[in-house]
Amino acid sequence: MVPDKIRIKDIAEHSGVSVGTVDRVLHNRPNVSKAAREKVEKTLKELDYHPNMYASALAYNKSYTFHCIIPKHESEAYWEEIEEGAMSAAEHRRDFHINIKIKYYKRFSSNTFVKVTEESLKENPDGVIIVPSKLDLTRKFTDELHERNIPFVFLDSYMPDLKPLAFYGQDSFCSGYFAGKMLMLIASNEKEIMLMKQMKDGNVASKQQENRETGFRHYMRDHFPNVTITEVNLPLDEEREKYDDILEEFFSTHHNVHHCITFNSKAHLVGEFLLRSNRRNVQIMGYDMVSKNADCLRQGSISFLIAQHAYMQGFSCIESLFEAIVLKKEVTPVNYMPIEILTRENIDFYRRTQL
After folding, report:
1. Which InterPro entries match (predicted)?
2. Contact 264, 287 (CB under 8 A)
């Protein structure tokens, strides 16, 4: 008998049980005796039966709700592309009634992360995508998800001890190391590099940015130990005029700095200042192909951008939940995004929605 032509009725007759019993075994439902389950499983093995999970999920006609818990963000930012990718994946699987609910927390506010995660638990979603906050706060949430058998995927920052279903993001250390190597191809004769950061209460926005900086500093220590790395903090939520004051003071007193780097998506804050102040002998390197960064890259104030494929990450997170929850498939646990470098010459050929 051809495996894909085997009917539940055939399995029932071969096993000597009812069609309903076979259905409960195939869908791992309760109220099946040990003897009956063993008969059905023996028949499945003998007939080399492999259920069509795709067709079965369609026939089940259930709806699914996935929560996506991410930082509150500006328009056209990295996180907006994450959202677009997630929504596109839901549309791609619209026959399976996948619903996405985006929930936002403030990046440096533990209280808002706790509030949002508590709201999520009250709504009892089928799966969750999480951009982690502090380890202890994230662990409290994920422990409860494990208790309820709700699969979750980590995005942006990887915390393997919390045992997520999957992770999507760059290998942050390698990414920072690579960034240092690319920067020093054009800055090998420099004695000082400016590192632009955005911090609050002494903390950067994410573990990912910390790991990138660690990778970068490792590269510099290994290959350019005599180059000074000078940090400049542009505080969050400040008006642009204050940024201009900070940057003007820095460049006016550091005439030998011609190259800068940042590990967030805000390289344009420095890039736009360089254009406004007509400083054509300074460039910055940063992350993420958001529109403001792309404009600065085309105009020459940004030298390189490292792309993270945010759209792809959002899309793939939903796909992993879909495959694990709906199709009952195993998924790849660790998924590192490509580390791609964009320049003025190739940025217009970069397809952020390509999968």
Report:
1. HTH_LacI, Lambda_DNA-bd_dom_sf, Peripla_BP_I, SBP_2_dom
2. yes
Cβ atoms of residues 14 and 22 within 8 Å: no
DSSP state of 120: H
Contacts of 328 (CB under 8 A, 6+ apart): 53
Element (H, E) at 243: helix 240-253
Burial class (CB within 10 angstroms; exposed 0-12, middle 13-18, buried 19+) of 222: exposed
Please say whether the dihedral angle defined by the alpha carbons of residues 314, 319, 322 and 324, taken in this order, is positive or negative.
Answer: negative
**pTM of the predicted protein model:** 0.78
CB 197 within 8 A of CB 232: yes
- Domain 60-169+310-338 shares a fold with domain 172-307: yes
Written out in words, the top-level CATH class of the domain with range 60-169+310-338 is: alpha beta
- Cβ atoms 263, 213 nearer than 8 A: yes
> Right CATH number for 172-307 from 3.40.50.620, 3.20.20.70, 3.20.20.140, 3.40.50.2300?
3.40.50.2300
Mean pLDDT to the nearest integer, 207-219? 93
Domain range annotation of the chain: 3-51, 60-169+310-338, 172-307
CA distances from 170 to 50, 132, 156, 311, 337 (A): 35, 15, 7, 13, 5
Q: Does domain 3-51 have CATH number 1.10.260.40?
A: yes
pLDDT tens digits, 325-347: 988 889 999 999 989 999 999 99
